[in-house]
Amino acid sequence: MPMKLATTRAPKVGFVSLGCPKALVDSERIITRLRSEGYQIAPDYDGADVVVVNTCGFLDSAKAESLEAIGEAMAKNGRVIVTGCMGVEEGRIRAAHPGVLAVTGPHQYEQVVNAVHDAVPPLHDPFVDLVPPEGLHLTPRHYAYLKISEGCNNRCSFCIIPSLRGDLASRPANHVMTEAERLVKAGVKELLVISQDTSAYGLDIKYAETPWKGQPLKARFLDLCQALGELGAWVRLHYVYPYPHVDDVIPLMAEGKILPYLDIPFQHASPSVLKAMRRPAHQEKTAARIAAWRKICPDLAIRSTFIVGFPGETDADFEFLLQWLKEARINRAGCFKYEAVEGAVANALPGAVPDAVKEERWHRFMAAQQTVSASLLAEKVGRIIPVLIDEIDDEGAIGRSQWDAPEIDGAVYLDGETDLAPGDIVNVRITDADETDLVGELV
Ligand code: SF4
Question: From CA 362, how far away is CA 337, in angstroms rounded?
Fold first, then answer.
């Protein structure tokens, strides 16, 4: 049993959140719960009674980073609870850091909170129990991630997320909408819809209807997008797969109900590589689909991620990918050099690609992508567009267009506009562009 600390002041919990936006949402839930019980969040290790480290266990490099973060928290504080994706490898964590107080896995909110109770019990004080009704968010107040489901029914050969997080488990539609509405009422201007597979939403619960605003609302991708589009905030869709029913949401984008933006992690374009990756919807003719979507919604921006150097990827496969990238005109793309993930099926595939070849392909991919991105951004010069302001510094305001998600895409720079505030949405004439960002002036 870990030693309990008794305190006469509000106990303080330090929080280290590693990994993807989905892990960030988990951290927000844990923090919201702890704050509702009167815990305070310590800004540094010294002031914390206990530190929670929310780990990422996706790639081996992420695991190494997680172990390092646990080590740093142990050295600087010494009372550490580990949670998140790497928590499923308790033996490895305890071998490296035997002194951790508790180890829990992803989404084990109850267990994490119980471990915190064990380490430092909550104080019962009605004044510190208060939390804003929208919960507490680690992102700036004007945008928030909205998680619509956990887990995944796909079995991509390079991925261990289903074994870490389980099969798809969708939230009821009215739970999602209640959270979204609260966020918007609290001042959130942009909702970022996330999950492992957003377009599969509701499949596991047979698209169950729940009451919302006096009407039944189906837990279905299109129905949820329609309902979210009524809230008056920007709605951005992440982690969508190109299943045929994705076509149905493109008119909502053309009508301005949801943002003309789709984050589709294609990972590759060559049919043989996609097959080896066991990607969902890998038989879809995606370049033609994107072209058809852009006929309906010319402003549609596609963001994606790709893997180069997957086992068996030939020169011809890679050239196919580069051609596809240019043809599909992908607005934003991240690229990873394939890395084996412990426990992934892909590790057993033949045809390992040498590191030097991966490196060369990565550079060629990024150069091709920058050319596509620069030409798409150059087309925006002269247009007047809405821009959501993210931050103000000495030189002016920095915001984002509807085509850019926070953290991962580009920015719109407004030189000299220091009187704006984060969360403002302003009309901007675009005056210049490079391969990543836009420059504009207020109109
Ligand atoms: S869709 Fe594939 S890569 Fe994404 S979480 Fe599911 S199995 Fe992993």
Answer: 7
Determine which residue's CA is closest to atom 2 belonging to ligand 1. Answer: 156
Rounded to whole angstroms, the Cα distance separating 65 from 414 reads 36
State residue 332's pLDDT score: 96
Protein residue whose Cα sits closest to atom 4 of ligand 1: 196
pLDDT of 316 > 60? The answer is yes
Ligand 1, closest atom to CA 196? 5
Instruction: Determine contact, residues 30/109, Cβ cutoff 8 Å.
Output: yes
| Cα 440 to Cα 259: distance, rounded to the nearest angstrom | 20
Instruction: Give the Å distance between the CA of 278 and the centre of ligand 1.
Output: 9
Displacement of CA 405 from its chain's centroid (Å): 10
Phi and psi at 34, nearest 5°, equal: -65, -40
121, 34 Cβ separation under 8 angstroms: no
Quick check: 390 and 140 in contact, CB under 8 A?
Answer: yes
> Do the beta carbons of residue 268 and residue 305 sit within 8 Å?
no
pTM (two decimals): 0.77
Helix (H) or strand (E) holding 215: strand 215-218
Q: Which of 157, 161, 273, 274 to mutate to test the pocket of ligand 1 (most atoms within 8 A of CB)?
A: 161
- Give the mutation target among 147, 149, 157, 196 for probing the ligand 1 site: most ligand atoms within 8 A of CB: 196
Reply yes or no on whether the pLDDT at 127 is more than 50.
no
Spatial separation of the C-alpha atoms in residues 281 and 191, rounded to whole Å: 26
